[in-house]
Amino acid sequence: MRSICVYCGSNVGADPGFAETAALLGRRLAEEGLGLVYGGGNVGLMGIVADAVLEAGGEVTGVIPEQLVNLEMAHKGATRLEVVANMHQRKQRMFDLADGFVALPGGFGTLEEMFEMLTWRQLGIGDKPCAFLDVRGFYRPLAAMMERMVGERFVHPEQRDDLWLGEDIDAMLAWMRAYRPLPNGKWLEGKKRTALR
Length: 197
Prior knowledge:
Helix content: 40-55%
Low-confidence stretches: none
Number of helices: 8
Order of helices and strands: EHEHEEHEHEHHEHH
Shape: globular
């Protein structure tokens, strides 16, 4: 594992703990020799995690669509800043550059990006670890929703278990380094299709 993609808000959020954890994660990535791949902005939690990596001597690669360069205020201090044509190219490029994915607190975009990675894994397109860093219980309602999806037979239990959700950064990084993906396409087996009917 050489680099981690972090999805997070372009705002700092209401709880100061969000920013504190973003900075802590950035420092830990640099200490672990892991490069940061992220959305390329210098505002909100995005800017905080990038600045923390850089201040700790780590490498930061930002990937940002042309239309967001001004809106999200592209981080001019990033080690590398790639400007792409659109959001689809951004997500593909971030996937190509990263060996794993972490979601800090954020909004619609944060969830959309992480759930696309989870969906790609289901389809056998990707096999990289995905983790939700649950700062101050931010993702507790989402964890309950995922349990509901399992209970209502829209998601298999092993798919729900094939991600990490918790508060401990060190435990998360250890899990990501040791991650072994489910066999590609496992969810498509006939037995499992029948089980969801």
